[in-house]
Structures are given as structure tokens and as C-alpha cells.
Design goal:
about 300 residues; mainly alpha; two-stranded antiparallel ribbon; 2 strands; about 0% strand; globular
Length: about 300
């Protein structure tokens, strides 16, 4: 059927796979944003810079300590998550209760500072980060060649997203987190340290961004601008899925990634704008997003 349209099947499935890769990063980053906004009511514009920091921490570990990819998967999200927790305690807690605009401006300023520091030190060129030996190569599926590392990225991203959704929506810890955003005084009365819970939540959301940065490093290289290039699209994904909706972020991230890949096959000129066109249409029909709840 595709050959009748003049499209080789290999090109089509290759773009779908590329769309899934992009969708995996959209989903993980928008998931972190949704967790932070849904539970803390903060629009975290520094998310792209922290995603970039996750990739750079992995690069530092390899260059200066000789610790490879597998160590970075553990250390980098923890390190960036701790930095995020410190930022929340030192800066963000001072604007709780204010309009969302204050959080957006503060985190936007943090993003520019972090990005500027890394760009001043490393320039705008990318630093190479090799695929770990265990994930090199690929598999010939007949209709396309599937690189092992890219399949790994999709699988890990989907697993992390679903586990996060389950913890927040189906466990007692998740119920505490949701209750703390709606009635913190009542939750505090049950002996739960709400400020600590908020700090851990922000650190976890930032850690998700760092994990996405590590997964992206062997594909896109480690670049000070890698977060800035992605964060606008990720915000569009969050808006389409519904601000604060965990499931909406996951489904919309992967779905829009695939749609972007298909657009590159059928109408390449629109591939860079299709996400924003969809965002405009969704906002006109459902201002709260596909999975969001109206205020």
C-alpha cells in the first residue's frame, strides 16, 4: 500500500521508530513537568536545563572518573535530583501561593543561568558520548533495521513512565502527595512532613529530566543547548495532554512523537510545526487539554 504512495516501507517504519524515540523523551520530560505542576503548582521552565545537566553529569562521570553509562543511570538522576531539591528549598518555596507567573519567571531565569554557564565553559558544540558496548548493534526485522540502543530507550522510558503513573495514582504514597497539594494542613495533622514531601517530589521530577538526558546523550550528543531545543515542544505536549495530568503526559508524548515522525514522511515541511498546530486545535476544543480537568 505504501509503495503505491511512493513511500518505501523502510522509510516509513524508520520514521515511526524515530518518532517513538522522540516521543520517549517528550513523555519523560513532560511527565516530570506534570508531576511538578500537578503536585506543586509550579511551571518549571528550568526542566530543559536540568535535562541537559543530566547528560553532562553522565559525560563528567565518564571523562573524569571513568564511570560508564550504567553507573551514570544511577548517579546522574540522584545528583541532579539533589540539586533540584536544593533549588526548591532555597528559592521555589518562597513563591508558593503566588501566581503561576512567578514560578515560570523564576525557573526561566534559572534555566538561562544554567545554560549560560555550560555554554560559556563548553561552547555550543556537542560532546560525544558512546553507546555502551552491551547495547551496540541492532536487529534486522525484515522491514527495517532496529538499533538495539534505540529500542532500549523506548522500553526504559515506557517502563519509567508507567511505574511513575502507578505510584502516584495507585499507591498510598501517591495519595499522600495528592492530598498534600489540596489540603496540606490536614495531611500535616496526620504526622506527615509536607515540606519534605514537596521537596522530594520536586527532586523526583527533576531526576526524571536528568534520566532522559542520560538516555539522550548517545543519540543526540551532550550539548548545552539540547534542553533549550526541546523544552518548548515538551510544554506543548503538557498543554495538549492537560496540565498536571500524569497519564495525559505519557500518552500525548509518545503519540505526538509518532505523529511528528509520520509527518516527516508524508509532509516534511510541517514536521516542525505539527505539534503546535495540534496544540491550537486542542485548546480551541478542550482548553483544559485532552486529559486535564477544568478548573
Amino acid at each position: 500500500m505504501f509503495e503505491l504512495l511512493g513511500i518505501p516501507p523502510q522509510a516509513l517504519f524508520g520514521q515511526v521508530m524515530l518518532g517513538l524515540i522522540n516521543g520517549a523523551f517528550y513523555a519523560m520530560l513532560s511527565l516530570g513537568l506534570a508531576v511538578i505542576f500537578g503536585l506543586l503548582n509550579i511551571i518549571n521552565f528550568a526542566h530543559g536545563a536540568l535535562y541537559m545537566m543530566g547528560a553532562f553529569v553522565a559525560w563528567f562521570l565518564l571523562q573524569y572518573l571513568g564511570l560508564g553509562y550504567w553507573w551514570a543511570l544511577v548517579i546522574s538522576p540522584l545528583a541532579v535530583g539533589l540539586l533540584g531539591a536544593a533549588l526548591e528549598r532555597l528559592l521555589l518555596k518562597r513563591i508558593y501561593g503566588l501566581d503561576h507567573l512567578y514560578g515560570l519567571l523564576l525557573t526561566f531565569g534559572l534555566a538561562l543561568i544554567i545554560q549560560g554557564l555550560f555554554q560559556n565553559e563548553f561552547g555550543s558544540s556537542g560532546q560525544p558520548y558512546a553507546v555502551p558496548p552491551a547495547l551496540q548493534g541492532g536487529h534486522n526485522l525484515g522491514f527495517m533495521f532496529l538499533p538495539t540502543y534505540r529500542a532500549w530507550v523506548v522500553g526504559v522510558s515506557l517502563t519509567v513512565c508507567l511505574v511513575t503513573w502507578f505510584v502516584i495514582e495507585r499507591t498510598k504514597l501517591g495519595s499522600y502527595l495528592r492530598a498534600a497539594t489540596e489540603n496540606p494542613a490536614l495531611v500535616q495533622a496526620f504526622g506527615i512532613n509536607v515540606p519534605r514531601l514537596i521537596t522530594i517530589t520536586y527532586g523526583f521530577g527533576v531526576g526524571l529530566a536528568a534520566l532522559a538526558g542520560i538516555l539522550a546523550a548517545p543519540i543526540y550528543q551532550v550539548n548545552p543547548l539540547m534542553g533549550a531545543d526541546l523544552i518548548i515542544v515538551v510544554f506543548a505536549v503538557v498543554v495538549i495532554g492537560g496540565m498536571g495530568s500524569i497519564l495525559g503526559s505519557i500518552l500525548t508524548g509518545f503519540g505526538l512523537g509518532v505523529m511528528e515522525g509520520l509527518t516527516k514522511v508524508f509532509y516534511p515541511e510541517a514536521s516542525n510545526t505539527v505539534v503546535f498546530i495540534i496544540m491550537v486545535i486542542v485548546l480551541l476544543i478542550r482548553p483544559a487539554g485532552l486529559f486535564g480537568r477544568a478548573s
